[in-house]
């Protein structure tokens, strides 16, 4: 008795009981939008090079609640010294541990935030136009969304320890719509780590959205550790807005999935704001990682800095299309965009499409994509130390990703994510 | 030739080439454990090539002859296998490996020497690493820096000797370890090398200048020219080469002269 996600309206899924009435109305509108928007075509620029077969979602259905919740709680173990940990299993909150949150911080399931903090919620929940291709799928997300994490750090509050959020996916052909919404008030700071995990090796679907709002002088570290099963189709749709002198540093680590579509849209809204956009993509077998990015500068003297590293083994594919846009009046913009592809196989394919549009004066922009193979001299050097070729290659790949982790400028995160990466790389073939 | 080839690094009538170009033309040399030998020679004599060939660099082809490590031929073995058998090459130009920390790099090299399934003990490892670093005046914060990335010439060479100290090879080839070093760095590196000297290691120091041999005093000095050892002597030979250059020795012992015994 499975409920199709593409032919069943939100009012028919019974999901609306979760939400306040006004949001249920939103969901119905989103459903209509989903239905009215056409399925992406090959000729659509945002879907150039994409594997359109992978985004046919017609045989996915609504996930049912997970039975063995206890084992997922046990498996949700990463950092120990946390401010809080939320665990969702198929979009149901199964664990809520808030040990070290300073007063005033709100960490709630989304539906509760919509009920009790409507104004805050409305101000930051999916307010931007989804413009990198997945508008239709974002509408589907909004229509079927059942829960998610709402993080609000008020003005001046510093959350020292990280907040960890787990999103578990379970069920053959099941779909979840993970959502993380983060608002940092003026001068606030926080570190949030989202974990996206499959409980079993199943073909399923995740359409994830995150909204990051970083207000004046606030400082956010956001990391998405994506470890879906190798059969999962996943969308990760991000919007980041950074206010005056605010800093957002966000990393997407794609360690799993069969087809992963990432869209990252950074809005540099305030003068002197900064957005660091990072991604680590070890691709192997037939994995396809399709990433579209936008660095949109609205204010003067802002900086955006994108660094994506792809290591491609076997018959994997990556697509990168990124646009830097410097709007009128965004003078003295610094915008950087760098994509590096480390080709580990002759069958792998990397597509890179950097782009630039400048409407202001006195700006500094660089963009570039490079592709290269393992450096033979580095390999020889390592082998001359006794390291076998396979381990040497692994170490070089690890180092290639390590240079991205360094850009987090956060030793704790660097070490923690390095360990996750080590585990992933040592278990892959 | 050494009577006891079972505890020496022994190069026998080695011929090798890169592409069609012969580089080594019948080189014979024997480095017994416990001794330090130096090879000197002009640029282009093939000194660095010899080091790379011993380590198993894929660009070179050995056409005849042999290299024996404690009596066993290592030709045909992969570079990593040679290293695990106890051969160490300190590179003239150590590679930069972005994103790989020195600590993780040396750790991987030590891990590679353990039997499958056995894990390196982290506390012992760091204790040993720090002790060796202190001895070589390598700042401790180097452990978290990427291998050789942004290092000065002296830092790179100290890092090579640090690796050698950690891996404890039975034979070490030091390829122009003095190049790019100022006198202070040279003293530190030499002290590091001297501290590793002993009955359990044989060393081959390749250098262009006699200066290094003031600090690492060799048991024997060999002169290399056109892919062969043309003359051998004790440490005074290095002084003579420094004072008089290479021309006399090439004239006397080289292609046109008498072959060295």
Outline the fold blueprint:
The complex is a heterodimer of chains A (429) and B (261).
Chain A: H1 10-13, H2 21-36, E1 61-62, H3 69-75, E2 84-89, E3 92-97, E4 106-109, H4 110-116, H5 118-124, H6 135-144, E5 149-153, E6 163-169, E7 174-176, E8 179-184, E9 189-198, E10 205-214, E11 219-227, E12 233-242, E13 247-254, E14 259-268, E15 274-283, E16 288-297, E17 303-312, E18 317-326, E19 334-343, E20 349-358, E21 364-373, H7 376-383, H8 389-406, H9 411-427
Parallel strand pairs in A: 1-7, 2-6, 5-8, 6-9, 7-10, 8-10, 9-11, 10-12, 11-13, 12-14, 13-15, 14-16, 15-17, 16-18, 17-19, 18-20, 19-21
Antiparallel strand pairs in A: 2-3, 4-5
Chain B: E1 8-18, E2 21-32, E3 36-40, H1 47-55, E4 61-69, E5 72-73, H2 79-84, E6 87-90, E7 97-101, H3 102-111, H4 122-135, E8 146-147, H5 153-167, E9 171-175, H6 183-196, E10 202-207, H7 211-215, E11 220-225, E12 228-233, H8 235-244, H9 247-253
Parallel strand pairs in B: 3-10, 3-11, 6-9, 9-10
Antiparallel strand pairs in B: 1-2, 1-4, 4-5, 7-8, 11-12
């Amino acid at each position: 008795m499975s409920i199709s996600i593409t032919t069943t309206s939100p009012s028919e899924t019974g999901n609306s009981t979760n939400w306040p009435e006004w949001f249920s109305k939103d969901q119905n509108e989103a459903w209509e939008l989903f239905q009215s928007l056409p399925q992406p075509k090959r000729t659509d620029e945002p879907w150039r090079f994409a594997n359109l077969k992978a985004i046919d979602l017609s045989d996915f259905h609504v996930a049912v609640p997970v039975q063995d919740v206890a084992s997922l709680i046990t498996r949700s173990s990463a950092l120990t010294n946390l401010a809080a940990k939320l665990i969702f299993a198929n979009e149901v909150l199964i664990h809520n541990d808030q040990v070290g949150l300073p007063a005033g911080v709100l960490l709630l399931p989304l539906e509760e935030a919509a009920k009790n903090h409507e104004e805050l919620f409305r101000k930051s929940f999916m307010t931007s136009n989804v413009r990198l291709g997945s508008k239709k799928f974002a509408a589907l997300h909004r229509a079927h969304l059942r829960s998610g994490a709402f993080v609000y750090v008020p003005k001046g509050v510093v959350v020292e320890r990280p907040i960890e959020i787990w999103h578990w996916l379970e069920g053959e052909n099941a779909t979840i719509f993970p959502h993380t919404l983060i608002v940092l008030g003026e001068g606030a700071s926080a570190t949030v780590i989202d974990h996206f995990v499959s409980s079993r090796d199943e073909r399923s679907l995740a359409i994830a959205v995150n909204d990051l709002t970083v207000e004046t002088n606030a400082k956010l570290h956001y990391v998405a550790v994506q470890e879906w099963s190798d059969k999962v189709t996943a969308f990760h749709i991000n919007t980041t807005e950074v206010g005056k002198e605010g800093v957002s540093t966000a990393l997407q680590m794609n360690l799993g999935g069969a087809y992963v579509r990432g869209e990252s849209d950074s809005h540099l809204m305030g003068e002197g704001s900064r957005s660091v956009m990072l991604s680590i993509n070890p691709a192997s077998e037939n994995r396809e990682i399709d990433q579209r990015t936008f660095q949109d500068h609205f204010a003067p003297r802002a900086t955006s800095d994108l660094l994506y590293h792809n290591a491609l083994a076997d018959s994997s594919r990556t697509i990168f299309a990124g646009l830097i846009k410097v709007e009128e009046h965004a003078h003295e913009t610094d915008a950087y965009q760098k994509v590096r592809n480390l080709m580990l196989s002759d069958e792998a394919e990397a597509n890179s499409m950097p782009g630039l549009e400048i409407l202001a004066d006195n700006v500094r922009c660089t963009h570039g994509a490079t592709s290269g193979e393992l450096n033979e001299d580095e390999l020889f050097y390592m082998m001359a130390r006794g390291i076998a070729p396979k381990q040497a290659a692994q170490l070089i790949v690890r180092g290639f990703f390590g240079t991205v982790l360094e850009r987090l400028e956060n030793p704790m995160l660097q070490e923690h994510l390095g360990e996750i990466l080590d585990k992933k790389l040592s278990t892959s073939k | 030739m050494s009577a006891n080839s079972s505890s020496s690094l022994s190069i026998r009538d080695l011929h090798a080439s890169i592409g069609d170009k012969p580089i080594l033309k019948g080189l014979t040399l024997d480095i017994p454990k416990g001794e330090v030998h130096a090879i000197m020679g002009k640029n282009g004599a093939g000194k660095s090539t010899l080091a790379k060939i011993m380590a198993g660099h894929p660009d070179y082809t050995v056409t005849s002859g042999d290299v024996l490590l404690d009596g066993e031929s290592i030709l045909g073995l992969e570079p990593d296998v040679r290293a695990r058998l106890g051969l160490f090459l300190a590179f003239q130009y150590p590679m930069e490996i972005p994103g790989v920390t020195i600590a993780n790099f040396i750790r991987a090299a030590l891990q590679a020497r353990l039997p499958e399934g056995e894990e390196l003990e982290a506390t012992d490892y760091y204790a040993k690493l720090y002790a060796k670093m202190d001895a070589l005046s390598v700042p401790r914060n180097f452990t978290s820096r990427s291998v050789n990335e942004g290092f000065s010439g002296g830092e790179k060479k100290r890092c090579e000797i640090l690796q050698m100290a950690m891996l404890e090879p039975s034979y070490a080839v030091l390829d122009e370890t003095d190049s790019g070093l100022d006198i202070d760095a040279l003293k530190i590196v030499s002290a590091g090398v001297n501290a590793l000297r002993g009955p359990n290691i044989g060393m081959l120091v390749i250098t262009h200048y006699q200066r290094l041999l003031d600090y690492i005093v060799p048991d024997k000095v060999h002169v290399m020219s056109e892919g062969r050892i043309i003359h051998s002597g004790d440490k005074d030979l290095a002084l003579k080469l420094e004072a008089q250059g290479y021309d006399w020795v090439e004239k006397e012992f080289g292609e046109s002269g008498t072959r060295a015994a």
